[in-house]
Design brief:
- The structure holds 2 protein chains of 2 kinds.
- By secondary structure, chain A is mainly alpha-helical.
- Chain A has one domain (56-295).
- Chain A is 70% helix and 5% strand.
- Chain A is built from 15 helices and 6 strands.
- Chain A has helices at residues 5-21, 38-61, 69-85, 90-115, 119-138, 148-155, 163-181, 184-193, 195-200, 205-231, 243-253, 265-284, 292-307, 309-316, 319-325, and strands at 29-31, 34-36, 142-144, 157-158, 161-162, 233-235.
- A two-stranded antiparallel sheet of chain A has the order 1-2.
- In chain A, a hairpin with a 2-residue loop joins β1 (29-31) and β2.
- In chain A, α2 packs antiparallel against α10 and α7 (163-181) packs across α8.
- Chain A starts with a helix and ends in a 12-residue tail after the last helix.
- Chain B has a domain at 40-250.
- The chains are: A mainly alpha, B mainly alpha.
- The interface between A and B is large, with 53 and 47 residues.
Chain lengths: 337, 327
């Protein structure tokens, strides 16, 4: 697990940095039967990003990429809020929204696996059209809902723990079980290394590809419900805007190679937490919000540089240890299909 | 090499994606001409160039990067940063354009150079390095100013309003000339120089290129520098078009540029594609916009859905045509 060392170090550094500005940063207390504290807030507000990143991890593990998750986030929130505002029950609204997300994920998977369009372009279609679809659902307006039951998804508590965190733990547990206890993870990695070779070895790579895109869209859908429930409204324009980039970043910071073929779910969670902590830190230490992106760029570069074996070799001069020990992604032999 | 045989003539498979795009483009133009009055005129086609000159320049830079198997997500924000720097330097200290424009081009190329160096020297994936570059450039925009800065410099506005008359009432803007010049230089560099061949070789198979003794590292750094330069130039052209600098200019342009390159038949895995394909790709995107504006009644969300659908149909048709011929 040395791969997770550096992301963990960065996360700890960021958290410690916060203590200098907010001495009570690490304190967690129970008020009215609810957990409160800055750390809980990071988990709570980071929950949608962690979910989207988990889905993205499996897509990237197959060597693909999903640019449409941000639009799916917007669509899920829009449809659920529209249903609720039309007096549908919360259960129906959630099921309908997730069903639509599943369909969109299957569509992405179909384009990539069956039609054979490059993932970045196949999902670009839904990225562009999806935001239009979200606006179409909300009629270009921001739909506000007032439903205590719906509010639970993003803002509620269960056994003193915020409900969003529980959802993340649930999804993480299920996906970790499926990919690490069953053979599914290995099959995904095999498809990511070489889809054609794994097909010849008897793996239904098409099915696997379609499945990971459906999973990514479903995760994005849940994240969309969480976001819209937390603010009790759906904004087709801005909900989930650029979340796909943050998710891709989280995945890469977590040590998953964009070339596909291997992945780390715990790394992704670490990566998403780094991004969320960074955002919180920037606000809490009083940096002007317009420079947020600047800090993000610096931290991302720093994390990626210290993770890079050749950077460590060149700067810290540990040539004997770094370079031959860990296989670099580009050493993978490219076999054209 | 497989080839598609039409009658006696035989077309090499590598030209096929470009040809398919060209045919689909022609078909779009014909359908538009039948459907909308006043669509099938030369000026409508020229307007596509006038409105997309900056995208064309940016997409040409992107073509170099994608040909080596990389990707550059920073182009849109570098475009925005260029408009921002130009506008703020001319509005604030009142710098003359002949100082501002070279400085902006230098900054863009410098950013590209740094990103290329990081990609090459530290083996970090281009997607992430240029994503960081994207955040950096957008962040710099907002640190300069969060509002839009108008450009009122006399030389700039004069250049922006110049019309170059062609025959029969047709006209183009100077930006189109710049874009055409960039296209010609790019065609020459990619297809007639040693550097161009290294670009294709690096994208085809980096290991082989390295074993052949090609300067792979230098090639990779150079393509990102070219892309940075093209983005900055695109930014200058956009500031002629918009006559303002704004941190929210060109949001999402990196995706337009990537889409244009891919629609033009260049493979994202690198090693195969043409500059001419990218020109056609930009024309396709521009023509989609034109059709939407001729349609007139579409609301902004239907516009997005329509663009998505057309993009889908286009990629699907292209995929079908080129897949059939390969068998």
């Amino acid at each position: 697990m040395r791969r997770l060392l550096w992301p963990a170090v960065v996360l700890v550094l960021l958290l410690v940095l916060n203590v200098f500005f907010t001495p009570s940063f690490f304190s967690i207390e129970v008020k009215d039967g609810h957990l409160y504290g800055s750390l809980i807030d990071i988990l709570r507000f980071g929950a949608p990003l962690i979910l989207v990143s988990l889905g993205m991890t499996l897509v990237i593990a197959t060597g693909g990429i999903d640019l449409s998750v941000g639009s799916v986030v917007a669509i899920a929130g829009a449809l659920a809020c529209l249903q609720i505002s039309q007096d549908a029950s919360v259960f129906t609204a959630v099921v309908l929204a997730l069903a639509l997300c599943l369909a969109l994920g299957l569509w992405n998977g179909f384009l990539v696996a069956v039609v054979g369009i490059q993932p970045i372009i196949a999902t670009l279609i839904l990225m562009v059209a999806g935001r239009g679809l979200a606006q179409l659902i909300t009629d270009g307006q921001i739909i506000t809902v007032n439903s205590p039951a719906y509010k639970v998804i993003g803002g509620g508590y269960w056994l003193t723990v915020p409900f969003g965190i529980l959802i993340v733990i649930g999804v993480l547990a299920i996906s970790a079980f499926l990919t690490r206890r069953l053979a599914l993870g290995m099959l995904i990695e095999s498809v990511g290394s070489n889809a054609e070779a794994s097909r010849l070895a008897g793996i239904r790579s098409r099915g696997i590809l379609i499945m990971v895109y459906a999973f990514a869209a479903l995760c994005a859908g849940v994240a969309g419900l969480m976001i819209s429930s937390n603010v009790s409204s759906a904004d087709g324009n801005n909900a989930g805007l650029w979340i796909e980039l943050d998710a891709i970043l989280a995945v890469v910071i977590g040590g998953t190679s964009l070339a596909g073929g291997r992945f780390s779910l715990s790394g992704t969670v670490l990566g998403a937490l780094i991004i969320q902590t960074l955002t919180t830190t920037i606000y809490s230490i009083g940096v002007p919000p317009e420079t947020t992106l600047l800090f993000k760029a610096l931290v991302v570069t720093a994390v990626c540089l210290i993770q890079s074996p050749s950077f460590r070799a060149k700067v810290f001069g540990r040539r004997g240890r770094a370079t031959p020990a860990s296989p670099a992604p580009e050493e993978k032999v490219r076999v054209s299909a | 090499m497989t080839a598609l045989t039409v009658g006696r003539a035989s077309i090499p498979a590598k030209y096929l994606p470009v040809l398919v795009t060209a045919c689909l483009l022609a078909a779009m133009f014909v359908v538009g001409g039948i459907r909308y009055e006043g669509f099938a005129s030369g000026q409508v086609l020229l307007n596509v160039f006038i409105d997309n000159a900056f995208l064309l320049v940016v997409a040409i830079g992107m073509t170099f990067v994608i040909l080596t198997g990389g990707i550059d997500l920073s182009v849109g924000s570098v475009v925005a940063l260029s408009t921002m720097i130009s506008a703020s330097l001319m509005a604030g200290p009142g710098w003359p354009p002949y100082l501002v424009v070279p400085l902006v081009l230098l900054i863009g190329s410098g950013l590209g150079l740094v990103m290329g160096y990081i990609v090459h020297a530290f083996d970090i994936q281009p997607f992430i390095v240029t994503l960081a570059g994207m955040f950096l450039a957008r962040g710099l925009c907002y640190t300069i100013a969060t509002d839009s800065i108008p450009i009122e410099d006399a030389t700039f506005t004069a250049f922006a309003q110049t019309r170059i008359d062609l025959f029969a009432d047709l006209w183009i803007s100077p930006s189109v000339l710049v874009a055409v010049l960039v296209v010609l230089v790019a065609v020459y560099v990619l297809h007639y120089t040693r550097f161009g061949r290294s670009v294709y070789a690096t994208g085809g198979n980096e290991q082989s290129a390295l074993l052949m003794g090609l300067p792979v590292g230098r090639t990779k750094i150079t393509v990102y520098t070219i892309s940075g330069f093209c983005s900055a130039l695109g930014g200058v052209l956009l500031s002629f078009y918009m006559l303002s600098g704004y941190g929210l200019h060109a949001v999402g342009m990196e995706l337009d540029a990537i889409a244009a390159v891919v629609i033009g038949g260049t493979l994202l895995t690198g090693g195969s594609g043409f500059v001419l394909g990218t020109v056609l790709g930009v024309l396709v995107l521009g023509l989609i916009q034109t059709i939407i504006s001729f349609e007139g009644t579409l609301s902004s969300w239907w516009t997005k859905i329509f663009i998505g659908m057309l993009l889908f149909v286009f990629i699907l048709l292209q995929r079908l045509f080129s897949a059939r011929s390969r068998r």
